[in-house]
Amino acid sequence: MSSTTASAAARPAGPQAPAAGSARKPVDPRSARRRRSLAQWGFIAPAVLFMALFFGYPLVRNLVMSFQDYSPSTFFTGEAPFNGTDNWRTVFDDGLFGKALWQTVLFTVGSLAGQFCIGLALAVFFTRRFPLNGILRSLILLPWLVPMVVSGIVWRRIFDQDTGVLNSFLGTVGLPAGTPWLTSTSMALISVILVNIWIGIPFNMVILYGGLQEVPKELHEAAALDGASAWRTFRSVTLPVLKPVITVVLVLGFMSTVKILDLVLALTDGGPADSTQTLGTLTYQNSFVQMDFGAGAVVGNILILISAVFAVFYLRVNRNEGK
C-alpha cells in the first residue's frame, strides 16, 4: 500500500512530455498538394495514354493523310508527298459524295424516327403488368445482341426476291410477291432502313423504359384527378419529364447510325447503282476498293466532324440537365 502511494506521488501530475525526436513535423501544404496531384495523375495517366494511342493518334494520322498522296506504293516506299487540298477537291467534285451525303441523311433520319417511335411505344406498353412481361422484354433484346453482320446476312436471305421468306409469305396471303427488296434502286435504301430500325428498337426501348420508371406516379394521379385523357397525360406529363432521356437516346442513336458500315455491306454493298451508298460505305470504297487512301481519309474526317458536333451537343445537354 505504501509503495503504491509512493509511486503515485512520484508520477508527474501534468501530461507527459513527448520523447525527444518523437514530435511530428508540420506538413507542408504545398508538398501535400503536390503529392495529391501526383496521385490523381497516376490514376488518370493509363486512361490518357490509352486514349492518346488508340484514339488521338489515329485521328491525327487520318487528318494528315487527307492532305497526302497516299497510295499502295506508300507501304513499300514510305513516301506520301503532301498534295495540299487535292484530295478534298476530288471528293467534293465527285457527284457520288453528294449522293452519299443525302442518302446518309435519309438513312439516319428514317432509322432514328422508326427506332424511337416503335421503341417508345414498346416501352410504354411494357410499363403495364401482365404475364410473361419480363420474358417478352428479354426476347425483344435479341436483335440488339446479334452481331450486325449476322443480322445483315439473315435479312439478305429474307429479302431475296426469288427464295426469300418475305416474298413467299406475301404470296401466301395473296399480296403481290416478287418485290426486289435489295435489287431495286427505289427499294434498296428503304429495305436497309427497315433492317436498321429492327436492330435499333431494343436499345431505344430499354433506355426509354428505364426513363419511364422514373416518372413520378403522383403526376399521373394528379392528371387523372383533373380529368385528363391518357393521350393528354402522356403528352403533357410523361414526355416533358422524359425529355432528358429522349435527348440521350436520339443523340447516341445518331452517332451510331450516321457512320454505319457493316450492315450496308452485308445487305447491298452500297448497291444497286450506289442507291445505298452512305458516307461510311464511301469511306470504305475509296480506301479499300479503289485504294485511294487520301480520299477515304477526307470522307472519314467529315464523318468524324459530324459525330464530334453531336458529341459536343450531347455533353452540353447533359451538363445543362445536371444543373
Radius of gyration: 31 Å
Q: What is the general shape?
A: flat
- Sheet with most strands: none
Work out the helicity level: over 70%
What is the average of the pLDDT values? 86
* Beta content: under 5%
* Quaternary form: single chain
Uncertain residue segments: 1-10
Q: Summarize the helix and strand pattern as letters.
A: HHHHHHHHHHHHHHH
Number of strands: 0
Distance between the terminal alpha carbons, to the nearest Å? 72 Å
Tally of DSSP helical segments: 15
Structural class: mainly alpha
How would the blueprint of this fold be written?
Layout: H1 2-10, H2 29-65, H3 74-77, H4 86-93, H5 95-126, H6 133-140, H7 142-145, H8 148-158, H9 165-172, H10 188-213, H11 217-225, H12 230-257, H13 262-267, H14 279-289, H15 293-322
